[in-house]
Amino acid sequence: MWLTAPKNTWPRYSKTGITMQLVDTRRGVQYFTFEHHREYQQVQFKFLDAVESMDPNNIVLLLQMNPYHVDSLLQLSDVCRMQEDQEMARDLIERALYSLECAFHPVFSLTSGTCRLDYRRPENRAFFLALFKHLMFLEKRGCPRTALEFCKLILSLDPENDPLCVLLLIDFLSLRAREYTFLTRMFQEWESHRNLSQLPNFAFSVPLAYFFLSQQEECSELELSQARERAARLIQLALIMFPSVLMPLLDHCSVQPDARVASHSFFGLNAQISQPPALNQLTSLYVGRTHSLWKDPAVMAWLETNVHEVLRMVDARDPLVEESEHKRKMRYQSAPRNIYRHIILSEMKEATAALPLEVTSQPVMGFDPLPPLDSIVSYTRPERYLRHPSTLSLFFRSLLPNFNLQAGAGQDLNQGVNRLMAAMRDMLANIQFQEPPRDDNPEGDGDWD
């Protein structure tokens, strides 16, 4: 299975100096790692110099000399996307994926579910990131089913640690792809050991999946009534556990709550203000990402019925309400690093606005956002004296909220960004077509799905 077919507009591929090794096999699971040979390490050092050089032309030049250098492709893809050149941004990610795929070990399988990569090793991160960025493009282009398969693939590479926290995304893609049974089955199988119901996205999306299943005419009456029952029970639990989701969700769907709901303190402003910071990030991410799936009038009518049932429980002082409030206050004080990494990659403005200062005040680079604190480093860059903060890192940080450029640095940044954009336009004009099209490409130019 190929992740992406090479295009005849791409420069001719030649070995880059990336290889993959099988490191270990335990209990039927194989552990692999990408490795950078010496020549690739030299290019990597040049890339890091280019990022810090204040002159973004250097990345473009590096890519002209090394058209399959993965981190350069990831970084420039981000820039193209910010400039609304989706086509080029996508093309660069596909090229990065192709470059990594050419390095696969003969027994590394994308479909077995038993091949692992350790995100703590910097050489492995590009594969996770390229897959994630690729699936985001697929989803935007209306290919949610293929995007879901890529999401499952990322999860299979390190299901224990989930370094890009794709568990925050897999429910949305399942609903978009109408893979309701997959989502409900995953929830049943994972809940006991992973507590998925503690994530607002699973707490709300799973009952929504059951609701959609309860609308499917081809199911038996028993299946339909079971789905209806589960949908009601789980959405009530979700609303009791995460009351702060309701009002922003209705707001995003342009729906006015009725007088009883609007005036009740349980779903009121206090629900937003009193929630811990990490929960605020998760609920903002969920509402920003999935609100369009809740707009259906049938969904809204079902939600309203259950909201009233929850208010009845609140007024009756059901012990579950107090229990949930206690859990909420104890948990969610601060999010693990993989959640922050996911929020940065998702670029959901509702959630990035809720990121804490310790995340937004450091440079966040597209080719390695928030590196793990326990990285396993196999080679290090020669030390060199650095005079300037990097234009690129300032540029990427400037896209995050809470960013405050020191006085005097703004002009440098603007010039740097303008140079970067000019260089990008130049690259678009030259780099893609520097070779005549090859006719020895049997795959042609087709998309994967």
UniProtKB/TrEMBL annotation:
Transmembrane segments: none annotated. GO terms for cellular component: RQC complex. It comes from the Eukaryota. PANTHER family: NULP1-RELATED, RIBOSOME QUALITY CONTROL COMPLEX SUBUNIT TCF25. This is Transcription factor 25. It comes from Buteo japonicus.
